[in-house]
Amino acid sequence: MTREIRLNALDQCNPSFLAFGLWSHPRDKALDFTSIDYWADYARLLERGLFEALFLADSLGVPDTYKQSFASAFRSGALAPSLDPAVIVPAMALVTKNLGFAITGSASYETPYLFARRMTTLDHMTRGRIGWNIVTSFLRSGALAMGRDELAEHDARYDAADEFMEVMYGLWEGSWADDALKRDKASSIYADPALISELDHDGPHHRIRAVSAAEPSPQRTPMLFQAGGSPRGRHFAATHAEGIFINGPKLELVAPQVTDMRKRAAALGRDPRSLKFFAGATIIVDETEALARARYEDYKRHTSVEGMLSQLSAALGIDLSKYPLDEPIRYEKTDAAHSQLEILTRKGSWTVRQAAESMVVSGRNLLVVGTPGQVVDELARWVEHADVDGFNIARILAHETMENFIGMVVPELQRRGMFKTEYAKGTLREKVTGAGPRTAHDHPASTHRR
Amino acid sequence: MTREIRLNALDQCNPSFLAFGLWSHPRDKALDFTSIDYWADYARLLERGLFEALFLADSLGVPDTYKQSFASAFRSGALAPSLDPAVIVPAMALVTKNLGFAITGSASYETPYLFARRMTTLDHMTRGRIGWNIVTSFLRSGALAMGRDELAEHDARYDAADEFMEVMYGLWEGSWADDALKRDKASSIYADPALISELDHDGPHHRIRAVSAAEPSPQRTPMLFQAGGSPRGRHFAATHAEGIFINGPKLELVAPQVTDMRKRAAALGRDPRSLKFFAGATIIVDETEALARARYEDYKRHTSVEGMLSQLSAALGIDLSKYPLDEPIRYEKTDAAHSQLEILTRKGSWTVRQAAESMVVSGRNLLVVGTPGQVVDELARWVEHADVDGFNIARILAHETMENFIGMVVPELQRRGMFKTEYAKGTLREKVTGAGPRTAHDHPASTHRR
């Protein structure tokens, strides 16, 4: 039997994400993304489909590499606007009981004390259903927005992020002993201060002297997600992540990444099976293959090429407007670029047209267009041969993509015994990893426990 | 006719606020404060009572002046623990249509770009019902938690806050022209980049170069609240605040503050009537005065003196444990201390016992214990003679205090024509000030409009 798969929905608090420009499709409802009811409805839908979590990406700053301007991003609504994912979560938590929420937070720019408290508050308010997608934020415009002189170098961002994690673990795991919280009305003792201690950290990137004022939440450290594609990013993920978001349109490109990262985790003393891999997937499903293909063609017609090139230029740090469409692009193979495009082509060279065509609707995701049976065949093949644990299903149209997936693909997955028919008990960590609610004993967070 | 009054509920995301120790009362439900349903129920209750807003205070850091330790704060649950008020708002917004939310945010420690975006997201998700209580954060432990060497001087904190406001206005009002947002499916144009501009600010306290990625929300600048008692704090409030939270147990202490601040606002070119003053009020009401008094005595028995002295020591910057109970305390009359205690006593000297007794259950609020008629008489007297526009009603017990107030006091206020019977239309600013939804033409935010 193929092993059980896990599903997250992949989205962002903006009008179109990955499927750039699709907000303009007549059936799309994403223009309502500034409404809290939009998100509440979305959460109810995902819980009906037994999704583990809504994975909310984020961008800090606005892409402005393409034509050296933010114009394309705003005109096409591609990554701009972008709202704060953290504050929409509790409304979704109120109308669901099991759905988790993996929100993106920047280890480069958040203030450690405030961020730790916000995540603890969210973990309380969701009853342990919060996850954190750790990013280091790659936009130069984001760095300037934060008052920095320049975007820090790629690997240096990860060094600072490692230190940020140390501080988080200190606050979440180290500050309160397990039995510090009393809440005892009879004695009027709320907490035993002898069991609460101060964190005193003075490092190259962060300084903090604080006792956590946020009483421990169900998971303490939220379930940790990461999506590092570069060697340094993979090392970071292998160290800290419990859920890993992995990209690539072809099984042959993804499988070696999974193998590599499980190996890295093992080398760091972690159980490599405790890391759960989610491959980004764009699924276009209908009752017949012809209908599904027609859907795809329809979606394509609403794609914004300008939005795609704006996002891609920012991600690569190359202004693609400078190149004729069919001329091979020469660029330095930096770590950051590595994870972005080479993976699409496995070639040393590519043209703007090739890049654009390869990203239409699905970005760097696995794309499957077909019947429920065909979709499940392909997902099963990935689980078996790429060794992934599940998929991050990307939104194309709100809420059509998820409605179709839940209406057609989920029943087929269940019929084949590849998907649960009810939620497991417990926190997000317990549901996704099968262990928990606290980080595993071989996870670095656990070494900070008192 | 006495003029119409406006009401906010005054609370904090912690077990007991002002009425320290009352979480231990058998009927109190505040131990549920870590649950999202607690807040959703609370919001529904306040909307039933036609409250303008839930005003959420906040503490960054933990009081540690008393006995030079945070022990008292945690033991008594006084200002510690303390969770993030921002992230609980959308859940309350989902179950209400009119209630506003004035959340506390630190102009000393928040990162401008991230904070502006969070508030814009909240203003969207509440459909224009968000307010911001601007604070500069007075706890030294908060400063150390943020990686600072020391707490900045009182007036210097306000100088930095003035600059923080400039940055906020620049992002909220100056970045997007009114017609920049298109959201036009036919042309696939989301926003017109020619009508969006970059903020480039380089000041002594803040540096930022950014275009706002958060599309304009109904109010743009959230309705601004402040509670500055010191001369510098009053100047700040007179400059920026639209709603002012004012403290003092006696009318004669509050009235001159209101007069002074309206005068300061006028001197700054603002319509002094556009500033709305809310006096902190602790109301203990029952059908007879004897029953109300019995309630008060019952509440007193659950007060934590340790919690009060912990909070007060931190606010004054004086370790009150060093003084015998009945010995007059000598201290330097700093700006910060000024707003805290002299106002209670109007005396040059006071003892720890006097301070503690004057703060039991009600802190520095107006305290009224009596029948609905007696309560309304006193509120009316304050509106007439202290020139306040309304009250911030403090929670003693969750949710008993608000249930009693709404069940007994609100109908009596309505009977006398002093309180609305339904909500006004529009955003929080429109409801509270009668103008809006944007800041008034004489408000400094408005000068940043394009």
Care to describe what's here?
- Chains A, B: It comes from Aminobacter ciceronei.
- Chains A, B: One of its GO terms (molecular function) is monooxygenase activity.
- 2 copies of one chain form a homodimer.
- With about 450 residues, chain A is α/β, with parallel strands linked by helices.
- In chain A, helix 4 links the parallel strand 3 and strand 4.
- About 0% of the residues of chain A have low confidence.
- Chain A is globular and about 70 Å long.
- In chain A, helix 6 packs parallel to helix 7.
- In chain A, the strands form 3 sheets. Chain A has an 8-stranded parallel beta barrel with strand order 1-2-3-4-9-10-11-13, surrounded by 6 helices. A two-stranded antiparallel ribbon of chain A has the order 5-6. In chain A, strands 7-8 form a two-stranded antiparallel sheet.
- The relative contact order of chain A is 0.17.
- The two termini of chain A are about 40 Å apart.
- The longest helix of chain A is centred in the middle third of the chain and has 21 residues.
- In chain A, about 40% of the residues lie in helices and about 15% in strands.
- Chain A is built from 15 helices and 13 strands.
- Chains A and B meet through helix 1, helix 2, helix 3, helix 4 and helix 5 of A and helix 1, helix 2, helix 3, helix 4 and helix 5 of B.
